[in-house]
Amino acid sequence: xxxxxxxxxxxxxxxDPGVGSVGGxxxxxxxxxxxxxxxxxxxxxETCETFTGNLSIQQVGGVTVxxxxxxxxxxxxxxxxxxxRTLWPLFHYRTDLVAxxxxxxxxxxxxxxxxxxxxxxxxxxxxxxxxxxxxxxxLARELRQRGVRNxxxxxxxxxxxxxxxxxxxxRHAELVEALFDYDxxxxxxxxxxxxxxxxxxxxxxxxxxASGEASAFGKxxxxxxxxxxxxxxxxxxxxxxxxxxAAFDRTRASLLGRKMIVGVDRxxxxxxxxxxxxxxxxxxxxxxxxxxKVFFLQIATPSRDEVEAxxxxxxxxxxxxxxxxxxxxxxxxxxxxxxNKAYRRDALAGIYRAAHxxxxxxxxxxxxxxxxEYVAAQDPVDPGVLILSELAGAAExxxxxxxxxxxxxxxxxxxxxxxxxxPTEERxxxxxxxxxxxQRDHVxxxxxxxxxxxxxxxxxxxxxxxxxxx
Length: 470
Description:
Rossmann fold; 16 helices; 6-stranded parallel beta sheet; 2 domains; alpha/beta; disordered C terminus; 10-stranded mixed beta sheet; single chain
Protein backbone atom coordinates (compact mmCIF):
# COMPACT_ATOMS: atom_id res chain seq x y z
CA UNK A 1 0.00 0.00 0.00
CA UNK A 2 1.12 3.53 -0.76
CA UNK A 3 -0.06 6.53 1.20
CA UNK A 4 -3.49 6.97 2.70
CA UNK A 5 -5.29 10.09 1.50
CA UNK A 6 -8.25 11.16 3.63
CA UNK A 7 -10.72 13.60 2.06
CA UNK A 8 -13.33 15.39 4.13
CA UNK A 9 -15.31 18.59 4.02
CA UNK A 10 -13.23 20.07 6.81
CA UNK A 11 -9.75 19.05 7.94
CA UNK A 12 -9.40 18.69 11.68
CA UNK A 13 -6.23 16.91 12.85
CA UNK A 14 -5.88 17.15 16.63
CA UNK A 15 -3.41 19.67 17.99
CA ASP A 16 -4.68 19.48 21.59
CA PRO A 17 -6.19 16.11 22.57
CA GLY A 18 -8.30 17.73 25.26
CA VAL A 19 -10.26 19.90 22.86
CA GLY A 20 -13.48 18.79 21.24
CA SER A 21 -16.42 16.78 22.52
CA VAL A 22 -15.71 13.83 20.26
CA GLY A 23 -12.07 13.82 19.20
CA GLY A 24 -11.44 10.13 18.61
CA UNK A 25 -12.20 10.15 14.89
CA UNK A 26 -9.68 12.89 14.13
CA UNK A 27 -7.10 11.15 16.29
CA UNK A 28 -7.58 7.79 14.57
CA UNK A 29 -7.37 9.28 11.09
CA UNK A 30 -4.35 11.36 12.07
CA UNK A 31 -2.58 8.27 13.42
CA UNK A 32 -3.17 6.37 10.17
CA UNK A 33 -1.96 9.32 8.11
CA UNK A 34 1.23 9.63 10.13
CA UNK A 35 1.91 5.88 9.74
CA UNK A 36 1.58 6.03 5.96
CA UNK A 37 3.07 9.51 5.45
CA UNK A 38 -0.36 10.31 4.14
CA UNK A 39 -2.34 13.43 3.37
CA UNK A 40 -5.56 14.98 4.67
CA UNK A 41 -7.34 17.08 2.05
CA UNK A 42 -10.35 19.37 2.44
CA UNK A 43 -11.85 22.80 2.69
CA UNK A 44 -10.00 25.32 4.87
CA UNK A 45 -13.25 26.86 6.11
CA GLU A 46 -12.17 30.14 4.53
CA THR A 47 -13.71 31.86 1.52
CA CYS A 48 -12.13 33.75 -1.37
CA GLU A 49 -13.48 36.11 -4.01
CA THR A 50 -12.64 33.79 -6.91
CA PHE A 51 -11.83 30.09 -6.72
CA THR A 52 -8.26 29.45 -7.91
CA GLY A 53 -7.60 25.92 -6.66
CA ASN A 54 -4.47 27.11 -4.89
CA LEU A 55 -3.51 24.83 -2.03
CA SER A 56 -2.10 25.56 1.39
CA ILE A 57 0.00 22.54 2.40
CA GLN A 58 1.20 22.45 5.98
CA GLN A 59 1.99 20.21 8.94
CA VAL A 60 -0.63 20.19 11.70
CA GLY A 61 -0.20 17.87 14.66
CA GLY A 62 2.34 15.80 12.70
CA VAL A 63 -0.10 15.36 9.78
CA THR A 64 0.33 16.78 6.29
CA VAL A 65 -2.82 18.70 5.39
CA UNK A 66 -3.79 20.26 2.08
CA UNK A 67 -6.38 23.02 2.34
CA UNK A 68 -8.33 24.80 -0.36
CA UNK A 69 -10.49 27.93 -0.05
CA UNK A 70 -13.99 28.09 -1.54
CA UNK A 71 -16.04 31.01 -2.80
CA UNK A 72 -18.78 32.47 -0.62
CA UNK A 73 -21.33 31.19 -3.15
CA UNK A 74 -19.88 27.69 -2.70
CA UNK A 75 -20.27 27.93 1.06
CA UNK A 76 -23.88 29.02 0.82
CA UNK A 77 -24.99 26.57 -1.89
CA UNK A 78 -22.82 23.52 -1.19
CA UNK A 79 -22.37 23.64 2.60
CA UNK A 80 -25.28 25.62 4.08
CA UNK A 81 -27.48 24.60 1.17
CA UNK A 82 -27.32 21.09 -0.26
CA UNK A 83 -25.30 19.48 2.55
CA UNK A 84 -27.10 20.97 5.54
CA ARG A 85 -30.53 21.99 4.24
CA THR A 86 -31.12 19.11 1.82
CA LEU A 87 -29.12 15.97 2.64
CA TRP A 88 -28.82 16.34 6.42
CA PRO A 89 -32.55 16.65 7.19
CA LEU A 90 -33.48 14.05 4.56
CA PHE A 91 -31.00 11.47 5.85
CA HIS A 92 -32.28 12.15 9.39
CA TYR A 93 -35.90 11.56 8.33
CA ARG A 94 -36.97 15.22 8.59
CA THR A 95 -38.58 15.69 5.21
CA ASP A 96 -40.53 18.64 6.65
CA LEU A 97 -37.24 20.56 6.91
CA VAL A 98 -35.73 19.59 3.56
CA ALA A 99 -35.08 22.44 1.11
CA UNK A 100 -34.88 21.50 -2.57
CA UNK A 101 -33.34 24.28 -4.63
CA UNK A 102 -31.60 23.87 -7.95
CA UNK A 103 -28.86 26.29 -6.93
CA UNK A 104 -28.03 24.05 -3.94
CA UNK A 105 -27.69 21.04 -6.23
CA UNK A 106 -25.50 23.00 -8.64
CA UNK A 107 -23.29 24.25 -5.82
CA UNK A 108 -22.86 20.71 -4.45
CA UNK A 109 -21.81 19.38 -7.86
CA UNK A 110 -19.52 22.35 -8.44
CA UNK A 111 -17.63 21.95 -5.17
CA UNK A 112 -17.19 18.20 -5.65
CA UNK A 113 -15.78 18.95 -9.10
CA UNK A 114 -13.44 21.56 -7.62
CA UNK A 115 -12.28 19.13 -4.95
CA UNK A 116 -11.52 16.52 -7.61
CA UNK A 117 -9.64 18.94 -9.85
CA UNK A 118 -7.55 20.24 -6.95
CA UNK A 119 -6.84 16.83 -5.43
CA UNK A 120 -6.03 15.04 -8.71
CA UNK A 121 -2.41 16.31 -9.08
CA UNK A 122 -1.60 15.15 -5.53
CA UNK A 123 -2.61 11.51 -6.09
CA UNK A 124 0.12 8.92 -6.66
CA UNK A 125 -0.46 5.54 -8.30
CA UNK A 126 -0.50 3.41 -5.14
CA UNK A 127 -2.41 5.76 -2.87
CA UNK A 128 -5.57 4.62 -1.09
CA UNK A 129 -8.22 7.34 -1.02
CA UNK A 130 -10.76 7.45 1.80
CA UNK A 131 -13.61 9.94 1.41
CA UNK A 132 -15.63 10.94 4.47
CA UNK A 133 -19.33 11.71 4.73
CA UNK A 134 -22.34 13.14 2.95
CA UNK A 135 -20.70 16.33 1.72
CA UNK A 136 -18.70 14.36 -0.86
CA UNK A 137 -20.95 11.59 -2.17
CA UNK A 138 -20.08 12.25 -5.87
CA LEU A 139 -16.32 12.77 -5.40
CA ALA A 140 -15.25 9.35 -6.70
CA ARG A 141 -17.23 9.91 -9.89
CA GLU A 142 -15.43 13.20 -10.46
CA LEU A 143 -12.05 11.58 -9.80
CA ARG A 144 -12.80 8.66 -12.13
CA GLN A 145 -13.72 11.10 -14.88
CA ARG A 146 -10.24 12.58 -14.43
CA GLY A 147 -8.52 9.24 -14.88
CA VAL A 148 -8.05 8.15 -11.25
CA ARG A 149 -7.99 4.33 -11.01
CA ASN A 150 -6.85 4.11 -7.40
CA UNK A 151 -8.89 2.28 -4.82
CA UNK A 152 -11.36 4.75 -3.35
CA UNK A 153 -13.52 4.12 -0.31
CA UNK A 154 -16.42 6.11 1.08
CA UNK A 155 -17.73 6.15 4.64
CA UNK A 156 -21.06 7.66 5.64
CA UNK A 157 -21.09 8.93 9.23
CA UNK A 158 -24.84 9.67 9.28
CA UNK A 159 -27.77 7.29 8.65
CA UNK A 160 -28.71 6.18 5.14
CA UNK A 161 -32.47 6.80 4.73
CA UNK A 162 -35.16 4.30 3.80
CA UNK A 163 -35.61 4.08 0.05
CA UNK A 164 -39.08 5.69 0.09
CA UNK A 165 -37.54 8.76 1.73
CA UNK A 166 -34.58 8.84 -0.63
CA UNK A 167 -36.84 8.83 -3.67
CA UNK A 168 -38.22 12.23 -2.60
CA UNK A 169 -34.80 13.67 -3.49
CA UNK A 170 -34.63 15.05 -7.04
CA ARG A 171 -32.00 13.14 -9.06
CA HIS A 172 -31.69 10.50 -6.34
CA ALA A 173 -30.69 7.86 -8.89
CA GLU A 174 -27.76 9.98 -10.08
CA LEU A 175 -26.55 10.37 -6.52
CA VAL A 176 -26.67 6.63 -5.85
CA GLU A 177 -25.06 5.86 -9.21
CA ALA A 178 -22.17 8.17 -8.28
CA LEU A 179 -21.53 6.02 -5.20
CA PHE A 180 -20.84 3.04 -7.46
CA ASP A 181 -17.61 4.73 -8.54
CA TYR A 182 -16.26 3.87 -5.10
CA ASP A 183 -14.73 0.45 -4.52
CA UNK A 184 -16.04 0.23 -0.96
CA UNK A 185 -19.07 1.97 0.57
CA UNK A 186 -19.20 1.85 4.37
CA UNK A 187 -22.09 2.52 6.72
CA UNK A 188 -22.32 2.78 10.50
CA UNK A 189 -24.94 0.07 10.94
CA UNK A 190 -26.52 -2.96 9.35
CA UNK A 191 -29.77 -1.00 9.20
CA UNK A 192 -28.22 1.64 6.94
CA UNK A 193 -26.49 -1.02 4.84
CA UNK A 194 -29.79 -2.83 4.35
CA UNK A 195 -31.60 0.40 3.44
CA UNK A 196 -28.99 1.08 0.75
CA UNK A 197 -29.19 -2.51 -0.52
CA UNK A 198 -32.99 -2.25 -0.72
CA UNK A 199 -32.69 0.84 -2.90
CA UNK A 200 -30.18 -0.90 -5.16
CA UNK A 201 -32.47 -3.89 -5.65
CA UNK A 202 -35.86 -2.17 -5.75
CA UNK A 203 -35.09 1.14 -7.44
CA UNK A 204 -31.89 0.57 -9.42
CA UNK A 205 -32.80 -2.97 -10.56
CA UNK A 206 -29.44 -4.11 -9.24
CA UNK A 207 -28.32 -6.90 -6.94
CA UNK A 208 -26.49 -7.37 -3.64
CA UNK A 209 -25.05 -10.78 -2.76
CA ALA A 210 -24.39 -12.25 0.68
CA SER A 211 -20.78 -11.05 0.68
CA GLY A 212 -21.80 -7.42 0.12
CA GLU A 213 -20.96 -7.26 -3.58
CA ALA A 214 -23.43 -4.78 -5.11
CA SER A 215 -24.09 -4.37 -8.82
CA ALA A 216 -26.09 -1.59 -10.46
CA PHE A 217 -25.78 1.00 -13.21
CA GLY A 218 -23.34 -1.30 -15.00
CA LYS A 219 -20.87 -0.98 -12.11
CA UNK A 220 -19.88 -2.90 -8.99
CA UNK A 221 -18.97 -1.88 -5.45
CA UNK A 222 -18.69 -3.62 -2.12
CA UNK A 223 -20.89 -2.44 0.74
CA UNK A 224 -20.50 -3.10 4.45
CA UNK A 225 -21.22 -1.95 7.99
CA UNK A 226 -18.25 -0.57 9.93
CA UNK A 227 -19.50 0.79 13.27
CA UNK A 228 -17.24 3.49 14.59
CA UNK A 229 -15.95 3.62 18.17
CA UNK A 230 -13.98 5.92 20.42
CA UNK A 231 -10.26 5.90 21.16
CA UNK A 232 -10.72 4.00 24.41
CA UNK A 233 -7.08 4.19 25.50
CA UNK A 234 -6.82 7.90 24.87
CA UNK A 235 -10.17 8.58 26.50
CA UNK A 236 -9.05 6.70 29.61
CA UNK A 237 -6.14 9.15 29.79
CA UNK A 238 -8.60 12.03 29.46
CA UNK A 239 -10.70 10.64 32.33
CA UNK A 240 -7.59 10.49 34.54
CA UNK A 241 -6.35 13.96 33.57
CA UNK A 242 -6.25 16.99 35.84
CA UNK A 243 -8.92 18.90 33.83
CA UNK A 244 -11.26 15.90 34.08
CA UNK A 245 -10.73 15.60 37.82
CA ALA A 246 -11.33 19.33 38.25
CA ALA A 247 -14.57 19.13 36.21
CA PHE A 248 -15.66 16.09 38.22
CA ASP A 249 -15.01 17.77 41.55
CA ARG A 250 -16.76 20.97 40.48
CA THR A 251 -19.78 19.07 39.17
CA ARG A 252 -20.09 16.78 42.19
CA ALA A 253 -19.83 19.77 44.54
CA SER A 254 -22.77 21.38 42.70
CA LEU A 255 -24.99 18.33 43.23
CA LEU A 256 -25.58 19.05 46.94
CA GLY A 257 -26.56 15.43 47.48
CA ARG A 258 -28.79 15.25 44.40
CA LYS A 259 -28.49 12.93 41.42
CA MET A 260 -27.65 14.31 37.98
CA ILE A 261 -28.91 13.31 34.55
CA VAL A 262 -26.65 14.59 31.76
CA GLY A 263 -27.13 15.10 28.04
CA VAL A 264 -24.33 16.33 25.77
CA ASP A 265 -25.17 17.11 22.17
CA ARG A 266 -24.58 19.44 19.29
CA UNK A 267 -27.57 21.79 19.05
CA UNK A 268 -29.44 19.98 16.30
CA UNK A 269 -33.06 18.98 15.66
CA UNK A 270 -31.98 15.36 15.06
CA UNK A 271 -30.83 14.99 18.69
CA UNK A 272 -34.34 14.89 20.17
CA UNK A 273 -33.68 17.65 22.69
CA UNK A 274 -37.25 18.96 22.82
CA UNK A 275 -38.61 15.44 23.31
CA UNK A 276 -35.98 14.89 26.01
CA UNK A 277 -36.98 18.04 27.91
CA UNK A 278 -40.64 17.01 27.75
CA UNK A 279 -39.79 13.50 28.99
CA UNK A 280 -37.92 14.97 31.95
CA UNK A 281 -40.94 17.16 32.67
CA UNK A 282 -43.05 13.98 32.58
CA UNK A 283 -40.71 12.38 35.12
CA UNK A 284 -41.24 15.27 37.52
CA UNK A 285 -45.00 15.18 37.02
CA UNK A 286 -45.33 11.40 37.43
CA UNK A 287 -42.86 11.01 40.30
CA UNK A 288 -43.12 13.93 42.72
CA UNK A 289 -40.83 12.00 45.08
CA UNK A 290 -38.00 12.98 42.69
CA UNK A 291 -38.60 16.71 43.09
CA UNK A 292 -35.47 18.40 44.47
CA LYS A 293 -33.65 15.05 44.42
CA VAL A 294 -32.50 15.18 40.79
CA PHE A 295 -31.59 17.73 38.16
CA PHE A 296 -30.96 17.54 34.44
CA LEU A 297 -27.85 19.12 32.89
CA GLN A 298 -28.15 19.58 29.14
CA ILE A 299 -25.05 20.80 27.31
CA ALA A 300 -26.02 21.84 23.78
CA THR A 301 -23.15 23.19 21.69
CA PRO A 302 -24.36 25.73 19.10
CA SER A 303 -23.79 24.84 15.44
CA ARG A 304 -24.81 25.94 11.94
CA ASP A 305 -26.16 29.24 13.20
CA GLU A 306 -26.78 30.46 9.65
CA VAL A 307 -29.40 27.76 9.02
CA GLU A 308 -32.87 28.89 10.09
CA ALA A 309 -33.91 25.51 11.50
CA UNK A 310 -31.06 25.72 14.02
CA UNK A 311 -32.04 29.21 15.11
CA UNK A 312 -35.59 27.98 15.65
CA UNK A 313 -34.67 25.02 17.83
CA UNK A 314 -32.51 27.16 20.09
CA UNK A 315 -35.42 29.48 20.75
CA UNK A 316 -37.81 26.60 21.43
CA UNK A 317 -35.42 24.92 23.88
CA UNK A 318 -34.87 28.14 25.79
CA UNK A 319 -38.63 28.60 26.10
CA UNK A 320 -39.18 24.97 27.10
CA UNK A 321 -36.47 24.93 29.78
CA UNK A 322 -37.79 28.22 31.12
CA UNK A 323 -41.31 26.83 31.33
CA UNK A 324 -40.20 23.70 33.22
CA UNK A 325 -38.01 25.65 35.62
CA UNK A 326 -40.79 28.15 36.18
CA UNK A 327 -43.23 25.38 37.06
CA UNK A 328 -40.99 23.25 39.29
CA UNK A 329 -38.00 25.26 40.58
CA UNK A 330 -37.63 26.25 44.21
CA UNK A 331 -35.35 28.78 45.87
CA UNK A 332 -32.56 26.20 46.22
CA UNK A 333 -33.26 23.89 43.27
CA UNK A 334 -33.43 24.36 39.51
CA UNK A 335 -34.63 21.21 37.70
CA UNK A 336 -32.92 21.96 34.36
CA UNK A 337 -29.49 23.47 33.80
CA UNK A 338 -29.41 24.28 30.11
CA UNK A 339 -25.96 25.33 28.82
CA ASN A 340 -25.13 26.56 25.29
CA LYS A 341 -21.34 26.34 25.15
CA ALA A 342 -18.60 23.95 24.11
CA TYR A 343 -16.46 22.11 26.65
CA ARG A 344 -13.08 20.50 26.28
CA ARG A 345 -13.16 16.75 25.79
CA ASP A 346 -11.26 16.12 29.02
CA ALA A 347 -13.64 18.37 30.98
CA LEU A 348 -16.59 16.46 29.51
CA ALA A 349 -15.02 13.23 30.71
CA GLY A 350 -15.19 14.54 34.26
CA ILE A 351 -18.79 15.70 33.83
CA TYR A 352 -19.80 12.29 32.46
CA ARG A 353 -18.20 10.56 35.42
CA ALA A 354 -20.12 12.77 37.86
CA ALA A 355 -23.48 11.99 36.26
CA HIS A 356 -25.70 9.22 37.61
CA UNK A 357 -27.57 8.91 34.29
CA UNK A 358 -26.42 9.55 30.71
CA UNK A 359 -29.32 10.51 28.44
CA UNK A 360 -28.58 9.90 24.75
CA UNK A 361 -31.87 10.01 22.87
CA UNK A 362 -31.49 11.23 19.28
CA UNK A 363 -34.45 10.89 16.94
CA UNK A 364 -32.02 9.49 14.36
CA UNK A 365 -28.23 9.17 14.53
CA UNK A 366 -25.55 7.40 12.54
CA UNK A 367 -23.77 6.15 15.66
CA UNK A 368 -23.47 8.66 18.56
CA UNK A 369 -20.13 8.49 20.30
CA UNK A 370 -21.34 10.39 23.36
CA UNK A 371 -22.99 7.13 24.46
CA UNK A 372 -19.65 5.35 24.28
CA GLU A 373 -17.74 8.16 25.98
CA TYR A 374 -20.26 8.23 28.82
CA VAL A 375 -19.71 4.50 29.43
CA ALA A 376 -15.92 4.82 29.21
CA ALA A 377 -15.91 7.64 31.77
CA GLN A 378 -17.74 5.74 34.53
CA ASP A 379 -16.37 4.59 37.88
CA PRO A 380 -16.46 0.75 37.79
CA VAL A 381 -17.36 0.62 41.46
CA ASP A 382 -20.30 3.02 41.19
CA PRO A 383 -21.17 3.40 37.48
CA GLY A 384 -23.96 5.49 36.02
CA VAL A 385 -26.73 4.20 33.78
CA LEU A 386 -26.92 4.84 30.04
CA ILE A 387 -30.33 5.55 28.51
CA LEU A 388 -30.07 5.19 24.74
CA SER A 389 -32.41 5.81 21.82
CA GLU A 390 -33.29 2.77 19.76
CA LEU A 391 -32.80 5.01 16.70
CA ALA A 392 -29.14 5.75 17.45
CA GLY A 393 -26.71 3.54 15.56
CA ALA A 394 -25.01 2.74 18.86
CA ALA A 395 -28.10 0.80 19.96
CA GLU A 396 -27.05 -2.08 17.67
CA UNK A 397 -23.95 -2.55 19.82
CA UNK A 398 -25.14 -1.38 23.25
CA UNK A 399 -28.10 -3.56 24.12
CA UNK A 400 -27.28 -3.45 27.85
CA UNK A 401 -28.26 0.22 28.00
CA UNK A 402 -31.86 1.13 28.79
CA UNK A 403 -33.15 1.31 25.22
CA UNK A 404 -36.01 3.75 24.66
CA UNK A 405 -38.27 5.12 21.95
CA UNK A 406 -37.18 8.79 21.73
CA UNK A 407 -40.63 9.83 20.50
CA UNK A 408 -42.32 8.51 23.66
CA UNK A 409 -42.03 10.85 26.63
CA UNK A 410 -43.58 8.19 28.89
CA UNK A 411 -41.03 5.59 27.76
CA UNK A 412 -38.13 7.96 28.44
CA UNK A 413 -39.57 9.20 31.74
CA UNK A 414 -39.93 5.66 33.03
CA UNK A 415 -36.38 4.83 31.91
CA UNK A 416 -35.09 7.85 33.85
CA UNK A 417 -36.99 6.73 36.94
CA UNK A 418 -35.65 3.20 36.58
CA UNK A 419 -32.08 4.44 36.12
CA UNK A 420 -32.28 6.70 39.18
CA UNK A 421 -33.33 3.85 41.48
CA UNK A 422 -31.38 1.00 39.83
CA PRO A 423 -29.49 -1.19 42.34
CA THR A 424 -25.71 -1.05 42.32
CA GLU A 425 -25.33 -4.70 41.30
CA GLU A 426 -27.45 -4.23 38.18
CA ARG A 427 -25.67 -0.99 37.30
CA UNK A 428 -22.30 -2.72 37.50
CA UNK A 429 -23.43 -5.67 35.38
CA UNK A 430 -24.84 -3.45 32.66
CA UNK A 431 -21.81 -1.16 32.68
CA UNK A 432 -19.35 -4.06 32.53
CA UNK A 433 -20.95 -5.50 29.39
CA UNK A 434 -21.17 -2.07 27.77
CA UNK A 435 -17.58 -1.19 28.61
CA UNK A 436 -16.31 -4.49 27.18
CA UNK A 437 -17.86 -3.49 23.86
CA UNK A 438 -16.48 0.04 24.00
CA GLN A 439 -12.97 -1.27 24.65
CA ARG A 440 -13.21 -3.93 21.92
CA ASP A 441 -14.91 -1.93 19.16
CA HIS A 442 -12.64 1.09 19.36
CA VAL A 443 -11.98 3.67 16.66
CA UNK A 444 -8.68 2.03 15.66
CA UNK A 445 -10.50 -1.24 14.95
CA UNK A 446 -13.01 0.68 12.83
CA UNK A 447 -10.25 2.42 10.89
CA UNK A 448 -8.21 -0.75 10.35
CA UNK A 449 -11.30 -2.74 9.38
CA UNK A 450 -12.33 -0.25 6.72
CA UNK A 451 -8.85 0.35 5.31
CA UNK A 452 -8.16 -3.40 5.30
CA UNK A 453 -11.36 -4.05 3.36
CA UNK A 454 -10.49 -1.28 0.90
CA UNK A 455 -7.03 -2.73 0.34
CA UNK A 456 -8.59 -6.10 -0.52
CA UNK A 457 -11.01 -4.61 -3.04
CA UNK A 458 -10.37 -5.13 -6.74
CA UNK A 459 -8.37 -2.43 -8.47
CA UNK A 460 -10.27 -0.52 -11.14
CA UNK A 461 -9.35 -1.54 -14.69
CA UNK A 462 -7.96 1.16 -16.95
CA UNK A 463 -10.45 2.81 -19.29
CA UNK A 464 -11.00 1.01 -22.59
CA UNK A 465 -9.04 2.42 -25.51
CA UNK A 466 -11.08 2.55 -28.68
CA UNK A 467 -9.18 2.51 -31.96
CA UNK A 468 -9.73 5.39 -34.35
CA UNK A 469 -12.46 4.62 -36.83
CA UNK A 470 -13.87 1.75 -34.78
